[in-house]
């Protein structure tokens, strides 16, 4: 059975004091839906966030990590560092990482392998750019992003993968994919999984939508049969908005 998940990607926002304040605001809200709740603060605040939410129904996840076990990679963080402070899930392949830090399907495949080798779950992000959609090649792009980074895996690995479809043109732009566009792509993604790995992997996969999800549009997007939750950017920075989305299921 797949899970509903609402994850807040805080990106490069919130210093320690702001992290403390937002977590205390989040803790004042009640979850009335069945969604799993995750937040992804910056690396420097992960430990504090983990400690501050120990007793709560909120999982703290990382926004990125390196694929190597250790070594001369100045400025990077590896899986065992994350695991050592209690982090069990990592976001990989966000379009901002792909665009600004040259992350590729190939390097992401290595990161996914490192996460799996360390018994961590991955929220694997992908999505087409506006030009791709205008050219009608969004399914070809998304299909290749998924296949190149994930289809070397055994079927059993997919229980530790969560997919997040984030069309680049909808991120931070106020432009949301319509619920029908999201559903069409999520259905295509599930079919792509089904074609290679069969119905068990496909049916059990949680596929999140990300891109300008807000309290006002979450319910309609989440009502689609192949949309199992959201990866939320801007609206995750306000506790009221975030919990309105969490409770939109
Ligand atoms: O990139 C996103 C989440 O990872 C989406 O960001 P916005 O919700 O701000 O569009």
**Rounded radius of gyration (Å):** 17 Å
Task: Assign the structural class, choosing from mainly alpha, mainly beta, alpha/beta, alpha+beta, or little secondary structure.
Answer: alpha/beta
The secondary-structure element order is: EHEHEHEHHEHHEHHEHEH
Whole-number count of domains = 1
Protein name: Triosephosphate isomerase
Organism: Psychroserpens burtonensis
Pfam family, one: TIM
Active site: 94, 166
Verbal overview:
The protein has eleven helices and eight strands. With 249 residues, the chain is α/β, with parallel strands linked by helices. The chain has a single domain (5-246), classed as Aldolase class I (TIM Barrel, Alpha-Beta Barrel), CATH 3.20.20.70. The protein has an eight-stranded parallel sheet with strand order 3-2-1-8-7-6-5-4. Helix 1 (16-27) crosses helix 11 (239-246). The chain is globular, with a radius of gyration of 17 Å. It starts with a strand and ends with a helix. The model has no long low-confidence stretch (mean pLDDT 97). The chain binds 1,3-dihydroxyacetonephosphate. 1,3-dihydroxyacetonephosphate (13P) binds next to strand 8.
């Amino acid at each position: 059975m797949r899970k509903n998940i609402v994850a807040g990607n805080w990106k490069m926002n919130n210093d320690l004091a702001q992290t403390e304040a937002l977590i205390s605001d989040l803790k004042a809200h009640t979850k009335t839906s069945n969604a799993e709740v995750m937040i992804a603060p910056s690396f420097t605040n992960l430990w504090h966030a983990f400690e501050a939410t120990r007793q709560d129904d909120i999982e703290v996840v990382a926004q990125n990590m390196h694929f190597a076990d250790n070594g001369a990679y100045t400025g990077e963080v590896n899986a065992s560092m994350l695991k050592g402070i209690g982090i069990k899930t990592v976001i990989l392949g966000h379009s901002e990482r792909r665009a600004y830090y040259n992350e590729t399907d190939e390097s992401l495949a290595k990161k996914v392998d490192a996460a799996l080798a360390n018994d961590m779950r991955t929220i694997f992000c992908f999505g087409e750019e506006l030009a791709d959609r205008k050219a009608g090649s969004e399914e070809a792009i998304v299909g290749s992003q998924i296949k190149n980074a994930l289809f070397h895996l055994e079927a059993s690995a997919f229980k530790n993968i969560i997919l997040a479809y984030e069309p680049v043109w909808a991120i931070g732009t106020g432009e949301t994919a319509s619920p029908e566009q999201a559903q069409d792509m999520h259905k295509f993604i599930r079919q792509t999984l089904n074609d290679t790995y069969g119905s068990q992997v496909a049916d059990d996969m949680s596929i999140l939508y990300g891109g300008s999800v807000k309290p006002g549009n979450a319910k309609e997007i989440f009502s689609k049969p192949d949309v199992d939750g959201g990866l939320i950017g801007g609206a995750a920075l306000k506790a009221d908005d975030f919990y309105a989305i969490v409770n939109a299921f």
